[in-house]
Amino acid sequence: MRRTIVTLTMSLLLIGSAVRHAHAQEVRGTVRERVSRLPISGAVIALLDAGGKTLGRNITDEQGRYRIIVSSNTTQLRFIRIGFRPTTVPLNRKGGSVDTLDVLMTTLPTMLEPMAVTANGCPRRDDTGPALGLLEQARASLLNSVVAREANPGRVVRIRFQRRMDGTSDRIAHQSVKIDSSARSERPFVSARTGAEFVRDGFVKDDAGGATYFAPDADALLDDAFIAGYCVRLVRGDRGHPTEVGLGFTAATQSRTRIDVDGVLWVDTTQRQLRRLEFRYVGLARSAEPANPGGQLWFRDMPNGVVIIDRWSLRLPALDPDSLYDNRTARFTRRDRLYAQESGGEVAHIAWPSGLAWDAPLGTLALTALTRSHTPAAGTQVRLEDTDYSGRVDAKGQVTLNRLLPGPYNLVVIDTALETLAIQLHTRLKFEAVRDSTHRATVEVSTANDYVQDRCRHDGIWNAFIPRRPGAVWMIGRAVSSDGLSVDETRASLAEGSAAKRAKDESSPFALLASDKEITSTRTGTDGIYELCQGRFSVGDSVIVTLRARDGATVKFPYVLRDSLTVLPMKPFPPKSP
Question: Hey, what domains does the chain have and what are their CATH numbers?
Answer without folding.
Answer: 4-10+149-359 (no CATH), 18-107 (2.60.40.10), 363-446 (2.60.40.1120), 461-567 (2.60.40.10)
